[in-house]
C-alpha cells in the first residue's frame, strides 16, 4: 500500500526578487543602452546573434502570440536596396529643415548601415494563429507593440554583451517588405544594425550634438 502523501507542498518560488547588486547593474544597463550609429566592422559570431534572438523571444506578447519575425539581411543586394531606401528618405527628411537645424541634421550620422556587420529586420505576423486571438480583438495593434517589446529586449541583451544596436527609422516602410521578399501578412516594425560599437557613450549622441536635451521630454506623469 502506498504511503505517499495525499498532497504536495507548493514549490518554493525561485526568485521573489533580485538583490541590490543586480538592481544596480540593471539600472546601469538601462542608462548605458544607446542607439548606436558608429560600428566597427568586426564580425559578430553567429552563435552570439542566435543567443540574442533567443533572449528577444522571452519578451511578453499579447495573448502569448509571439508575433515577431526576424530576418537576417545578409545579401549584398538586399542590403543595397535598404541603403538606397535610407538615402532617399534621408534626403527628403533633410529638405524639411532650414538654416542651422538643416546644417546640424546634415552633419548627424543617422545610420550604421554601411559598417554594421549584422542587419536584422523585424516584422509582425498580423495573421499568426499563435495565442488564438486572445487579448487583441479590440486592439489588434498590440501585436505590433509586442514585436516592439521584443526589439527592446534584444537591445538590452546586446548591450549586456558589449554589443551596440541602432534602430534605423529613416526608411520608406512600404518598400522594405518588397526589398526583403517577406510574406504579405508581415508588417514592417524595425530595421536594426547590430555590431561592436566604436565607443561607449553614456549620453545620447543627439543630446551631445545639441539636437535636443533628453530631459526636455523626460518623465511626465499625470495622476487622476
UniProtKB/TrEMBL annotation:
<dbReference type="InterPro" id="IPR000415">
    <property type="entry name" value="Nitroreductase-like"/>
</dbReference>
<feature type="domain" description="Nitroreductase">
    <location>
        <begin position="30"/>
        <end position="196"/>
    </location>
</feature>
<dbReference type="InterPro" id="IPR029479">
    <property type="entry name" value="Nitroreductase"/>
</dbReference>
<dbReference type="InterPro" id="IPR012825">
    <property type="entry name" value="BluB"/>
</dbReference>
<keyword id="KW-0560">Oxidoreductase</keyword>
<dbReference type="GO" id="GO:0102919">
    <property type="term" value="F:5,6-dimethylbenzimidazole synthase activity"/>
</dbReference>
<dbReference type="Pfam" id="PF00881">
    <property type="entry name" value="Nitroreductase"/>
</dbReference>
<protein>
    <submittedName>
        <fullName>5,6-dimethylbenzimidazole synthase</fullName>
        <ecNumber>1.13.11.79</ecNumber>
    </submittedName>
</protein>
<dbReference type="InterPro" id="IPR050627">
    <property type="entry name" value="Nitroreductase/BluB"/>
</dbReference>
